[in-house]
């Protein structure tokens, strides 16, 4: 049986970086760059487009620049990118030119996805660089929910802030779970025992087949405090902050279905805390 606990732990860390970016009014798209052999986190990135007013400051670019600025001798073919949302076409092209070793993402990017949802930049045989391995669906529903918490916020900098509708994200269900993989590719990454997830679209991937999860079972306060660069850039990580993060998300049951019966909260940028 394929145990995906490690990937879930790393994606949970990635989502927490995105959450901390959300608290400074950034789009909560985030990533980790890790050494494939040692699993050491070498760099982190989070969208910086709102603060910088630069549309190219995507999480992937920030993480790679940080790594290059470290003067480490990096072979990008030996690193893994954990990213909360499927890389856009621009970032997918950038990653392919780098020669990235592997990309694991949370949810698909329905509008701009460059790893198969819109264009298969990662695997297109007509491009000059070597293709790279990419697969998604790890903490997919949580990645979507984090984005929803951003999109319900109002732009306080606008002359006349647009009043957002459909803010009832605590009761909103998730779209069908689809994968940019062939059946054989899915089995290679997730195991044959998870084929019902691939075939039905109704279930979420879980770390261990037949066992549900909640985020607070996957990562701890210490795990999050140990993320490099995070506290110095986005503030202290403490128990209150971590519990507020956990409160944003539904649990997933043993059958792989989202537990919509759980009471969750949503982030309110104006009050800088959560609402029931």
From TrEMBL:
GO terms for cellular component: cytoplasm; nucleus. PROSITE patterns: CYT_DCMP_DEAMINASES_1, CYT_DCMP_DEAMINASES_2. Pfam families: dCMP_cyt_deam_1 (PF00383). Signal peptide: none annotated. GO terms for molecular function: tRNA-specific adenosine-34 deaminase activity; zinc ion binding. SUPFAM superfamilies: Cytidine deaminase-like. Residues 1-126 form the CMP/dCMP-type deaminase domain. GO terms for biological process: tRNA wobble adenosine to inosine editing. Keywords: Hydrolase, Metal-binding, Zinc. Gene3D superfamilies: Cytidine Deaminase, domain 2. PANTHER family: CYTOSINE DEAMINASE FAMILY MEMBER (PTHR11079), TRNA-SPECIFIC ADENOSINE DEAMINASE 2 (PTHR11079:SF149). This is tRNA-specific adenosine deaminase subunit. The lineage of its organism: Eukaryota, Fungi, Dikarya, Ascomycota, Saccharomycotina.
């Amino acid at each position: 049986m394929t145990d995906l606990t490690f990937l879930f732990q790393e994606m949970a860390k990635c989502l927490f970086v995105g959450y901390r970016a959300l608290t400074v009014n950034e789009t909560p798209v985030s990533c980790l760059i890790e050494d494939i052999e040692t699993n050491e986190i070498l760099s982190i990135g989070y969208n910086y487009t709102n603060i910088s007013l630069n549309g190219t400051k995507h999480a992937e670019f920030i993480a790679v620049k940080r790594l290059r600025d470290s003067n480490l001798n990096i072979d990008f073919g030996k690193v893994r990118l954990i990213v909360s949302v499927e890389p856009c076409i621009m970032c997918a092209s950038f990653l392919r030119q780098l020669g990235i070793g592997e990309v694991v993402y949370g949810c698909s990017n329905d509008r701009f996805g460059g790893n198969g949802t819109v264009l298969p930049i990662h695997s297109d045989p007509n491009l000059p660089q070597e293709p790279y391995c990419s697969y998604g669906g790890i903490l997919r529903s949580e990645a979507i929910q984090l984005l929803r918490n951003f999109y319900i916020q109002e732009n306080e900098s606008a002359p006349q802030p647009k009043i957002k509708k459909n803010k009832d994200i605590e009761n909103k269900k998730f779209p069908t779970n689809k994968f940019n993989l062939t059946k054989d590719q899915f089995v290679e990454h997730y195991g044959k025992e998870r084929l019902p997830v691939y075939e039905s679209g109704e279930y979420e991937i879980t770390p261990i087949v037949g066992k549900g999860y909640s985020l607070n079972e996957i990562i701890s306060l210490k795990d999050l405090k140990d993320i490099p660069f995070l506290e110095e850039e986005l503030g202290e990580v403490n128990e209150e902050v971590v519990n507020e993060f956990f409160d944003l998300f539904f649990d997933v049951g043993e059958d792989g279905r989202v537990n919509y019966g759980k009471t969750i909260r949503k982030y309110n940028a104006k009050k800088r805390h959560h609402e029931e």
